[in-house]
Amino acid sequence: MKHHHDFSTLEDHFQTVHHEPQDIHDRIALRFVKFLRVFADKFFAGRYGHRAVVLETVAAVPGMVGGLLQHLKAIRHIRDDQGWIKELIEEADNERMHLMTFIHIAEPSRFERWVIMITQAIFYNFYFFLYLFAPKTAHRVVGYLEEEAVISYTQYLEQIDAGTVENVPAPQIAKDYWGLAEDARLREVVLVIRADEAEHRDTNHAFANAIQSGEHV
Description:
Layout: H1 24-44, H2 48-77, H3 84-106, H4 110-133, H5 135-162, H6 172-178, H7 186-213
Helix pairs in contact: 1-5, 2-3, 2-4, 2-5, 3-7, 4-5, 5-7
């Protein structure tokens, strides 16, 4: 599946979008994500390519977990899922493609591969039970994680534009997936990935709102 983006709209200030917490659950979700951000900033500093590898491993988990649990719930209650299952599974696959792209760009070390495995194992179990017992909060967590991802990719773009990070050629896997030009560079890759993250951010906040309002149970 190819994801095409209009490059004339990709320079927009995606990072300005923020969902203000509405209740204690939203505030907990936001504080949890800000807590994780501190660790990411300290561990990776300005190494945005390596940060992306580890964080995209985590980002690929929620959609699959949410899709699975929504699938089981729809079967259990014998009702329509309102398109949520497909949306969540596609989100997970999209995040997986982000990971596969950055594997080619950052080439993680053996240590970072261990970090990926451990992080994924911990986060999968945490998120599974969070979604099982508090799906609204789970979607809000992802919404806030994606807000941070958009900020990180904006900073990544600034590093590329400043010449701090080399604007290397885009990997073939990225050109095939997003339909990029043959001469596409890292900057174009980061732009389309940031746009994906902004879309996931808006989707998950909308899902959380739908659960909160009773539109989706």
